[in-house]
Amino acid sequence: MGFPVHLAVLARKRSNSYVGPLDAYATNALALWGLSYRLLSSYTGALFRVRRTGDDEMDVLAGADGTFDLGSLNGFVGSDPWWFSQFYDQTGNGIHLTYAASGQPRGAIDGNGLVYAYAETGPNDKAMVKTGLSIAVTDSTHWTVFGSPSYQTYGAGFYTSTDRQRMPTNIGAVVGADFNYGSGTVAQVSGTNTGLYSATFQAGVSGNRINVGTASATGTKPSEAVTIIEIGMPAQFGGFQPRWVANAPVYAGGVWIADVGNTNADAIQQIGKDLYFAQ
Amino acid sequence: MKLYIPAPAARAMSDALWSLSRPASVRNPSDTQYLFPWIKALDDSHWLVVDTDFEINVHPLAEINGIAPILQPFVDAGELPADTLGALSALIESKRGGKLVPWEVFPQFFKDQAKTTAQMNDTGLLVQQIDAEA
After folding, report:
1. Do residues A102 and A125 lie in contact, with contact meaning Cβ atoms separated by under 8 Å?
2. What pairs with residue A209 in β-bridges?
3. How many helices (H) and strands (E) does chain B have?
4. Which listed residue, A7, A15, A75, A172, has the most CB atoms within 10 A of its CB?
5. Contacts of B50 in chain A (CB under 8 A)
């Protein structure tokens, strides 16, 4: 604690008209979680909730300038360890990430005055998100995913629809250039996760961004309308790792839903909100 | 270490365990409500996912109240010793204001049924996940 606030953050505080870094990508955003910033200018709620050593908890808000309230956070946690008990969804869809106590990521402030979360143990010990969002896709043969934000976004995401807990892991997404993760292929997974659904994923291909239009997934529609989502934004692995990895900072996350390859509009019929499956 | 414990009342159990650290009287609706996460396995059974090393603060007002009704049926069925609840209550009282590793006070009956992730996969309760190729 106690790092000096980065100049960029101070500059933002001087602005009276905040523009969210993901304002241009709000369409089809299913859920967005940001720690240091409001990702959408339309969002005015708390960014996250923290639990301190004594087990008291507090929401941390963002000001009109879009940045989190560092003074309030410091005042609450002092020099003691603290954890994230919730990341609030900034889309208004109410898909907050809520963790049981034993699965809560640790919180910290980096040298640039940005908030990040990380796992105390790992690798692959705990999922960042693993939930039963029920999204029924009603088009004919293809379904889903990945509205890909482009250059210098603060977060990106994916979702994979499967039957129950049958999901490939390590499917890709990235954080933006501001967050200094590696370059190269972001993530690429090819394979079959179950007999019910064969997927080929290519999510992000170059540099520290996802190119618009390159991220997609196609496959046969799952036989049951149960969707598993895993998502997260570790910053130092050159790609997306949907589980907490020890000491890998995470700054933001999100999920987009996009239609691919058909003329029928996908219908998001139901969004479950039981998010306690994070393990 | 992460272990899976079969628990039909996983949510209630997790809530009751967290109450040892944050009793309902001091807990806000937006606060953490559960100690351990849980899963629904492929056979629809529920399993508590226990971090065996996780330590909690025991609140000065901690009671066995929430845990007792969950364990009582196991006592009635003879699966737990008759003195289980009394011993657990005494332990909680002795730990008030201190620390506790919940796994260490789980009844042996539950510990004997614990499975690792690999064992869950091997028995078809979880599907093995695919690693990244990139």
Report:
1. no
2. A206
3. 5, 5
4. A172
5. 102
**Mapping DSSP to helix (H, G, I), strand (E, B) and coil, where does residue A263 land?**
coil
Name the A residues in 155-214 with CB < 8 Å from any B CB. Answer: 164-172, 185-191, 193-194
* Closest chain B residue to A237, measured at CA: B134
Among candidate residues B74, B55, B66, the one with its CA nearest the CA of residue B6: B74
Give the span between the Cα atoms of A141 and A220, in whole angstroms: 6
Per-block mean pLDDT, blocks of 10 residues, chain A (279 long): 36 60 66 79 93 92 90 94 90 80 85 77 46 30 26 28 28 25 28 28 28 33 31 30 51 49 28 27
Residue B13 backbone dihedrals phi, psi, to 5 degrees: -65, -45
Considering only CA atoms, which of A135, A215, A127, A222 is closest in space to residue A169? A127
Encode burial over A165-186: b for 16+ CB neighbours within 10 A, e otherwise: bbbbbbbbbbbbebbebeeebb
